[in-house]
Write a structure and sequence with these properties.
heterodimer, A: 305 residues, alpha/beta, Rossmann fold, six-stranded parallel beta sheet, two-stranded antiparallel sheet, 8 strands, globular, B: 322 residues, seven-stranded mixed beta sheet, 12 helices
Chain lengths: 305, 322
């Protein structure tokens, strides 16, 4: 989680310095979902994500320097600099792709789950999306199909309460995403997405059921987007959270406090993890910056397989 | 030579691919029941409903399902029942399928076929009769195939299923049940290869899909007047076999392009632009285009009949170039 936190904060700085390009959506504050979900998965479990995808890619195992190089538009990036922040893909680690069109990833994850059924195997498809995607038609089409076909798919909704600049209450009368899907009778749960252990436990339960072929499942994680919708968003539509409130809510600090009090690790251990993630990031940034921009011929070579 | 139909050739190509490759499966609305034109008739009986999957009326989701399955090692054949409904699937087709290979730096491939059918002539009115191929040809990453005969439909579908890219395969509903003599075994037809149906030295007629038959009829009529037309069916719009067309224009010095789609913004404009860019000095007359007028397809039979371009329009266009 420190890896994601420091990565995202550094990307914010690099965005202001015009060293990463495009529309950048940071997941600072939402690390408590990406980490406990992705670290329970295998490389061959396909994960799909949306426009706020850096944390999911990193948690699924994408090398830090390659993610950063992609944001910098470099040839060494995950996608050779052709995709960027909203289109990260790392097939080797089963990160099958982020999409910049809200909700467009959900039917593709379903297709991946269908492929698993047709081929045999025990892979579980997972798709991350925000609460904003739930109002899109393809979400509802996909939930209908997933339940009709009973596919091993886990829908992970990061409900941060805001669809871009607008609070959920202005877009729908249904407060909880888990209630939206209630008529389909799929197994679902809403958890505090800033409570890493709650996410770990609920997702783990769904995962072991999906591994043996059941599904679909929906895990709604109530979380908090500390930054704006995108880097540069002045966030005029909501009040900033107070420092004290955030200390209380921060999924990383919460887990650290809990872990120390349970005797799982010491404060020094936690600080060492944070330091290591910073050192790793520094190294990654150097390597990413050293990577050249792609050759002019690359785009035309990659239109068709 | 045995007789077959366009629809039977398509059906047989799918069945053969499903027998040869267990990754191939079919999904779409009513496909397990054969669909409204019997294109998938009998497939569910032979391969089971696990591989011939009926879906709800959810074009966006089923397009996404096909893409996700293709990215995960399968070879889906997605049927969008009428091309008019592709509007509902365009996010998936345009933003996802077409771009996945590119945006992932080559990591992902989407080996899927999107079969659909278009065209007027069945009193289907404005939402079940369109010819929308030009939209799809505008998207880098998609291949667009539009066969006009049973042999080409079967042969090109086999190639489309083998292709590692998303291929939009556009059939024409009025061609489905026309009888045609074919060889015992329909041979695979490569994508991106045009076919010269009739040779001639006076004018080149490039025609798409249903208008290919009209172009041949027009050429026969013109021959009786002493005008020898060369008729070319590109068969694949993207990638376009421009060389075959240009070689013909260099010989005939005249070009007529005919399609059923609305002329304005139709694929004929692209062919005309590409030909004049490389063969301007060979042209003895402005390139003529034949296409539908700039209105939606009307229901009323006399109006619809007048709307659809045909052999008369092609003959008139050829005369304009002489």
């Amino acid at each position: 989680m420190w890896r994601i936190r420091h990565f995202e904060e550094r990307v914010g700085v690099l965005k202001r310095a015009d060293q990463v390009y495009g529309l950048i959506h940071l997941s600072v504050g939402q690390e408590g979902v990406a980490a406990p979900v992705c670290t329970q998965l295998r490389d061959d479990d396909p994960v799909y994500s949306g426009h706020r995808a850096h944390g999911h890619a990193l948690a699924k195992g994408a090398p830090v320097w390659k993610v950063l190089a992609e944001l910098m538009g470099r040839d060494g990036g995950l996608c050779r600099g052709l995709g960027g922040s909203m289109h990260l893909v790392d097939v080797e680690h089963g990160f099958m792709g982020a999409t910049g069109v809200v909700g467009g990833n959900i039917p593709m994850a379903l297709g991946s789950a269908l492929a698993r059924r047709l081929r045999g195997g025990d892979q579980v498809a997972v798709v991350f999306f925000g609460d904003g995607a739930v109002q899109a038609g393809h979400f509802n089409e996909s939930v209908n199909l997933a339940t009709l076909w009973g596919l091993p798919l886990i829908l992970v909704c990061e409900n941060n309460g805001f669809a871009e600049f607008t609070p959920r209450s202005a877009h729908t009368n249904v407060e909880r995403v888990s209630d939206v899907v209630a008529p389909y009778e799929l197994e679902r749960e809403t958890v505090d997405g800033n409570d890493v252990l709650a996410v770990w436990e609920a997702f783990g339960r769904f995962l072991s059921a999906a591994r043996s072929g059941s599904g679909p499942f929906l895990l709604e994680c109530l979380t908090y987007r500390l930054r704006g919708h995108y880097e540069g968003d002045p966030v005029a539509y909501r009040e900033a959270i107070s420092k004290d409130d955030w200390q209380e809510k921060d999924p990383i600090l919460r887990l650290q406090r809990h872990g120390v009090s349970e005797g799982w690790f010491s404060e020094e251990d936690a600080a060492a993890v944070e330091r290591e993630s910073l050192a790793e990031l520094e190294e990654a940034e150097k390597r990413a910056s050293d990577s050249p921009f792609p050759d002019d011929a690359v785009p035309a070579e990659l239109v068709y397989a | 030579m045995p007789e077959t139909t366009y629809v039977k050739a398509i059906n047989a190509a799918m069945a053969r691919a499903m027998r040869d490759d267990e990754r191939v499966f079919v999904l779409g609305e009513d496909v397990a029941e054969g669909g409204p034109y019997t294109t998938t008739a009998g497939l569910a009986e032979e391969f089971g409903t696990e591989r011939v999957i009926n879906t709800p009326i959810s074009e966006s989701a089923i397009a996404g399902v096909a893409i996700g399955a293709a990215q995960s090692g399968m070879r889906p054949i997605l049927e969008i029942m009428f091309i008019d409904f592709i509007t509902l699937a365009l996010d998936q087709v345009v933003n996802q399928a077409a771009k996945a290979h590119f945006m992932s730096g080559g990591q992902l491939t989407v080996p899927m076929v999107l079969r659909t059918q278009g065209g007027a002539g069945t009193r289907g009115a404005a939402q079940h009769s369109q010819s929308l191929e030009a939209w799809l040809t505008h998207i880098p990453g998609l291949k667009v195939v539009m066969p006009s005969t049973a042999a080409d439909a079967g042969g090109l579908l086999a190639s489309a299923i083998e292709d590692p890219n998303p291929v939009v395969f556009i059939e024409n509903k009025t061609l489905y049940f026309k009888r045609e003599e074919v060889p015992d075994e329909i041979k695979q037809v490569p994508i991106a290869r045009a076919r010269v149906l009739r040779e001639g030295g006076d004018v080149t007629i490039v025609a798409l899909s249903r208008l290919v038959g009209d172009a041949v009829a027009a050429a026969e009529r013109l021959a009786s007047e002493g005008v020898q037309a060369e008729v070319i069916d590109p068969r694949t719009l993207v990638p376009l076999d421009l060389d075959t067309i240009v070689r013909s224009v260099e010989k005939t010095n005249r070009l007529v392009i005919a399609h059923e789609a609305v002329e304005h913004g139709g694929f004929g404009a692209e062919i005309a632009a590409e030909v004049q860019a490389v063969a301007f000095d060979h042209l003895d007359a402005p390139i003529e285009r034949v296409g539908a007028p700039f209105t939606p397809v009307p229901l009323s039979p006399p109006l619809e009949d007048a709307y659809i371009p045909g052999a008369d329009d092609i003959v008139a266009a050829v005369r304009a170039t002489l």
